[in-house]
């Protein structure tokens, strides 16, 4: 079954459907986890969200109509799972995470990895909508057209979000650097 395309696998029905879904999980688990991790900043939460995402793949398998690539459909589904999770997070937890992140960045930034860590902290200061555009375009290599499909919005809306997200990311980086 591994020679089949993603689109062929998701359209598999009957007794082979379970094996087809297992193959899709094996192919896309890592990237889905990476997206969930970058959207939430928590590996164990990402594990749960990936499981939830693939449960939804099973549940909504019949809704895949082949008009878009499977990966676009999957990323839209994973994105929705992440957004559902983010919507459930309480404000107190968000404030505690922010305080924890700010305390951690006060350390010496002389190591090369510290600059990357600072970038990640700045990324988590963005709204989920701005963060997802940066994650999809910069970390996952999606084109703006593909992101528009995933987000179900226009190409110009994606370009505007990307521009604003990068501007806000630069501001957050400058703020974090000045706090050190």
Relative strand content: under 5%
The largest pleated sheet is described as: none
Shape-level CATH architecture of the largest domain: Orthogonal Bundle
The assigned structural class equals: mainly alpha
Q: CATH superfamily of the largest domain, called what?
A: RNA polymerase sigma factor, region 2, helix turn helix motif
Task: Give helix and strand order, one letter per element, not per position.
Answer: HHHHHHHHH
Number of helices: 9
Describe the secondary-structure layout.
Blueprint: H1 6-10, H2 17-40, H3 43-60, H4 70-88, H5 91-104, H6 112-123, H7 128-139, H8 144-151, H9 155-179
Characterization of the model:
The chain has 2 domains: 1-89, Rna Polymerase Sigma Factor, Chain: A, CATH 1.10.1740; 107-180, Orthogonal Bundle (Arc Repressor Mutant, subunit A), CATH 1.10.10.10. 76% of the residues lie in helices and 0% in strands. It is built from 9 helices and no strands. It has helices at 6-10, 17-40, 43-60, 70-88, 91-104, 112-123, 128-139, 144-151, 155-179. α7 (128-139) crosses α9.
